[in-house]
Design goal:
By secondary structure, this protein is mainly alpha-helical. It has helices at 25-35, 42-60, and strands spanning 5-6, 9-10. It has a two-stranded antiparallel sheet with strand order 1-2. A hairpin with a 2-residue loop joins strand 1 (5-6) and strand 2.
């Protein structure tokens, strides 16, 4: 792990953890990568899912090393059998 990272998150020069933001260079990069793929392909959907996850982190102010807690987080059961 790099000396500028804390718990997998990038730490800025002022000591704060970098938080994703709507319209930042990472979101734009993911959009460009997604948009060059055929829309009905598995790869398009995979990148789109990553983009949705990134936006969820941006909208909730959650750093990328942490899970976004919402109605359905990865630690919760989504379906009841």
């Amino acid at each position: 792990m790099c000396e500028y990272c804390r718990g997998g998150a990038r730490v800025l020069a002022d000591g704060n953890v970098e938080i994703p933001a709507r319209g930042d260079s990472v979101e734009e990069w993911l959009e460009r990568k997604r948009d060059i793929l055929p829309k009905d392909s598995l790869r398009w959907h995979t990148v789109n899912d990553l983009l949705d996850d990134y936006r969820d982190h941006a909208d909730t102010g959650t750093d990328l090393s942490s899970a976004v807690m919402g109605p359905y987080s990865y630690s919760e059961e989504v379906f009841d059998d």
